[in-house]
Amino acid sequence: MTGSEPQYPGPGDRWYRGHGSDGNATDRDPDTLGLHEGRVHITARHRSVDATTIGRLALHIPNALLSLLIVIGLSLVLAELTGLAPWAWIGMWGVSGVLALWRPVENQLARLIFGLHHATPHELARLEPLWREVTARAGVDASVYTLWVEESADINAAAAGGHIVSVTSHAVEHLPDGQLAAVLAHELGHHAGGHAWSALMAYWYSLPGRLAWRLLLRATLMAHRRSPIVGEVIVLTLAAAAVLAVVLTNGAVLLFVAGPFLISAVGRSAELRADKYASGLGLTPQLTALFSGALADGPAERESGGAALLTRLLASHPDSRARLHALHRHTHDRS
């Protein structure tokens, strides 16, 4: 599928048979969610690749190419040490990212890297009915995804890899049913748009480059502390190499500078698309209540100045005011 606007379900669509004449009447209360029983139609294909997914992958190409060069260098060294051909090491690195989407590997990543745990029976009793309702509205098999919980005092959630949907323990304990369902629907929207797997792939294949850059910075700082002259020589050498790279690539290397800002902008767009997906499942009042509550709990005035602007440009999520505005615009356009 191309990067065209994905077809999100609308509140008038039905994939289940409710008890009343209006299956979504209860949902007008932002703190509640009408649970429906009956037949559920599972769509043949509920995942797509939207524009933000394509944009994220495209923007990470320079980082991935840098990582590939580093992996090639390391493979040549390892080939000398082990006798295993360089292409074998490069192939293992290439396959490793795809394996990260395999459910057994995902489960280990969820525990060891993301710091998640399987929901307890008490947490499942809270989450499962809401999750079944959200997936029924979307025409998705609920068992495709695994619910995880992160121990945190914040209200947050995440979609990762191909099957991970997580919420914080604080959200499970304190959010009303309707708002918790809206959070789950938002994360399902990330999976439906391809945001979750593409974010993991982008992170994984740019990791060698990120690690090399951090090691270089740390080495430069250590050299500067031991000998300021050596540190300055390293900095000047790096600056000269950067200027040479700009000349040789006709400025294309500047994408590394603009990359973080563009990647953050794509991330904010992905969040708005996931909000739109959840709204399309009939959860607009719940989303509105959730963002209004976050806005009320936040600072009274938006910070100004260069540092605040830089923070906003590098933010991966839009603020609650922007999300409310986009939600209102989407609801108005749909009506």
Polypeptide structure, described:
The chain is mainly alpha-helical and 335 residues long. The protein contains twelve helices and four strands, in the order ααααβαβββααααααα. Strands 1-2-4-3 form a four-stranded mixed beta sheet, with helices on both faces. β3 and β4 (164-168) form a beta hairpin. α2 (61-82) packs across α3, α7 (177-192) packs antiparallel against α10 and α8 packs across α9 (228-248). The chain is globular, with a radius of gyration of 23 Å. The two termini are 27 Å apart. Mean pLDDT is 84; it is low at 1-23.
Unreliable stretches: 1-23
User: Considering DSSP H and I runs of 4 or more, what fraction of the residues is helical?
Assistant: 55-70%
Count the beta strands. 4
- Please indicate the percent range of residues in DSSP E strands (runs of 2 or more): 5-15%
What strand line-up does the widest sheet have? 1-2-4-3
Q: What is the makeup of the main sheet? A: 4 strands, mixed
Principal-axes shape call? globular
What is the mean pLDDT? 84
| Helix/strand/pairing category | mainly alpha
Distance between the termini: 27 Å
The helix/strand series, from N terminus to C terminus, equals HHHHEHEEEHHHHHHH
Radius of gyration computed on alpha carbons: 23 Å
- Given the structure, what is the number of helices? 12
